[in-house]
């Protein structure tokens, strides 16, 4: 294995590892000859083939955001000062996927508080509303203006403000595409509305109003973030073999074509808090389709399972400063990258678009995301059958959607073991999907390390329903190599969605059941474990996973 340090702009570090230097050089040289970088920056929609041209033609505005978003900074800062002058210093963001992940990373990196409400869990919604309502401003972000989770959260906050005698128009700020249903309703109600560029998809929207408005209102330096993006803009648009985006995209694309289709993202002392979660949704939703794709596996650090040791189908990536102590990938493919956050956003957007061209997919559509939404709607409307429980053990009810579970699997422990037996030992992965309060039950995320250690296979963890707007595309559209463990549970208390014929709890369960149905339709094995809310159920789950 050889390593290489690519020439990058000041303030950047990029180190690469690969098994065949000539092969990587050839791919990069072809990208340069084809002028891929400059054509992306020029919004050339033909780069991903004729089938992708229509969608790509209206999704490339993100390459200019380091310039086009600059006027937004003063507007956001002025509103922040106005709100703080009125005593409103707590910012809550209601949004999903691309509308929430970038602001969460921006604010965590900047060290400023932002409450991200990206769940339908009734306990999580209730707790967010109960905290500091008198000093809260709510940013409602939805590109389409019709995201049901975000609409439900908005309704709940409107109701809470009205009950408290507070005019919602004084507290709610909307970010959406011009002309969306949310735009029209919010304008009619007198809410403050920021329009995003409709020529940019949600997962490429970190430096649009979706990323900048909530982050700026929370106190992050969004002007500095755009400057960081501007510092790298010329380099990533250059048709040059030292272009870091071309090199990183080439590494990911070449590895994928050789069967190395998992991407481990480990925090290696990065100053950018939670960056892997943002990159996960960008890469998974952009590439996971047509039976192909790159599955991101976000881990806590270089010593975490799947990073050290890794499997032969993983590219191992470190987000943070260079170090000789970084693990060596079993596949031979690896990298380490360290840069300011704004530059990282741009670097990964370009690299993902480049990798998509090499893999042969359209990195700007998400054809399988809507299927889960439709299935959830069918559950709520009663037009699809509810799953039937197989058995209950220790406070945990077990559901098997297609009858794959062996008849002698009569405990949670044996059910989990049976699911893991379905793993392809060379190419399979495990996806744990927890439709629960991600703050109150954050220890469940430890199950990723537990199962990765137990099986030695790549393991991901996602909180539902937020992962449905990101990795959910890969699970249904990518390679059919996953097994899926859903964890649902009874809330402490359900919560009505004002003006809707369903509760938050009913909606959350419909999302889980609907997505499981779509996965099974794609031939994927799904096991759902439903916890009754007791300590005994949580202990049963822990024992079964270990």
Please describe what this structure looks like.
- With 546 residues, the protein is of the alpha/beta class.
- It is 41% helix and 16% strand.
- A six-stranded mixed sheet has the order 1-2-11-10-8-9, covered by helices on one side. Strands 12-13-17-16-14-15 form a six-stranded mixed sheet, with helices on both faces.
- Strand 14, helix 17 and strand 15 form a beta-alpha-beta unit.
- The protein starts with a strand and ends with a helix.
- 58% of the residues are buried.
- The N terminus is likely disordered.
Question: Summarize this, please?
Answer:
By secondary structure, the protein is an alpha/beta fold. 41% of the residues lie in helices and 16% in strands.
Strands, helices and their partners?
Layout: E1 2-5, E2 13-18, H1 21-33, H2 36-41, H3 53-56, H4 65-68, H5 70-85, E3 90-94, H6 101-110, E4 115-117, H7 122-130, E5 136-141, H8 148-163, E6 172-176, H9 181-189, E7 192-195, H10 209-218, H11 222-236, H12 244-257, E8 262-267, H13 275-287, E9 295-299, E10 314-319, E11 334-338, H14 341-359, H15 369-381, E12 389-393, E13 396-400, H16 412-421, E14 429-434, H17 447-455, E15 459-463, H18 471-477, E16 482-489, H19 504-521, E17 526-531, H20 535-545
Parallel strand pairs: 3-4, 3-5, 5-6, 6-7, 8-9, 8-10, 10-11, 14-15, 14-16, 16-17
Antiparallel strand pairs: 1-2, 2-11, 12-13, 13-17
Helix pairs in contact: 1-12, 5-10, 6-10, 11-14, 12-14, 13-14, 13-18, 15-19, 16-20
């Amino acid at each position: 294995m050889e390593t290489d340090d690519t020439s990058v702009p000041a303030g950047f570090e990029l180190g690469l590892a690969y098994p065949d230097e000539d092969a990587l050089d050839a791919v990069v040289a072809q990208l340069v000859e084809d002028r891929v970088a400059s054509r992306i920056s020029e919004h050339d929609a033909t780069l991903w083939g004729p089938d992708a041209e229509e969608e790509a033609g209206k999704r490339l505005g993100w390459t200019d955001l380091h310039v086009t978003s600059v006027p937004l900074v003063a507007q956001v800062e002025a509103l922040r000062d106005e709100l703080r002058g009125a005593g409103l210093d707590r910012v809550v963001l209601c949004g999903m996927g691309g509308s929430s992940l970038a602001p969460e990373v921006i604010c965590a990196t900047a060290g400023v508080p932002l409450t991200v409400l990206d769940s339908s869990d009734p306990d999580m919604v209730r707790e967010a509303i109960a905290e500091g309502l008198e000093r809260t401003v709510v940013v409602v972000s939805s590109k389409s203006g019709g995201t049901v989770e975000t609409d439900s959260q908005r309704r709940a906050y409107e109701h809470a403000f009205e009950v408290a005698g507070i005019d919602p128009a004084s507290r709610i700020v909307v970010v959406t595409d011009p002309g969306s249903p949310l735009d029209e309703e919010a304008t009619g109600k007198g809410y403050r509305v920021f329009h995003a560029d409709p020529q940019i998809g949600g997962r490429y929207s970190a430096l649009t109003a979706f990323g900048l408005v909530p982050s700026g209102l929370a106190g992050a330096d969004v002007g500095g973030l755009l400057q960081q993006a501007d510092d790298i803009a010329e380099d990533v648009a250059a048709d040059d073999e030292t272009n870091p985006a071309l090199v990183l995209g080439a590494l990911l694309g070449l590895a994928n074509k050789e069967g190395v289709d998992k991407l481990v993202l480990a925090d290696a002392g990065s100053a950018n808090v939670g960056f892997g979660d943002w990159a996960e949704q960008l890469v998974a939703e952009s590439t996971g389709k047509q039976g192909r794709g790159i599955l991101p596996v976000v881990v806590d650090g270089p010593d975490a399972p799947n990073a050290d040791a890794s499997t032969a189908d993983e590219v191992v990536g470190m987000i943070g400063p260079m170090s000789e102590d970084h693990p060596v990938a079993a596949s031979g493919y690896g990298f380490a990258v360290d840069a300011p956050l704004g530059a990282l956003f741009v670097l990964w957007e370009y690299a993902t678009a480049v990798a998509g061209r090499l893999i042969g997919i359209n990195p700007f559509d998400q054809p399988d995301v809507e299927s889960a939404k439709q299935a959830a709607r069918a559950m709520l409307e009663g037009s699809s059958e509810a799953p039937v429980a197989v058995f209950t053990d220790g406070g945990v009810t077990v559901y098997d959607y297609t009858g794959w579970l062996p008849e002698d699997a009569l405990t949670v422990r044996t059910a989990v073991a049976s699911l893991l037996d379905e793993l392809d030992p060379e190419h399979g992965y495990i996806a744990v999907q927890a439709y629960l309060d991600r703050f109150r039950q954050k220890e469940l995320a430890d199950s990723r390390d537990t199962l990765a250690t137990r099986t030695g296979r790549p393991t991901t963890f996602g909180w539902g329903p937020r992962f449905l707007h990101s990795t959910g595309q890969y699970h249904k559209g990518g390679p059919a190599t996953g097994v899926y463990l859903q964890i649902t549970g009874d809330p402490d208390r359900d919560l009505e969605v004002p003006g809707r014929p369903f509760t938050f709890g009913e909606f959350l369960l419909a999302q889980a059941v609907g997505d499981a149905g779509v996965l099974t339709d794609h031939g994927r094995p799904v096991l759902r474990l439903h916890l009754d809310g007791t300590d005994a159920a949580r202990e049963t789950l822990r024992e079964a996973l270990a």
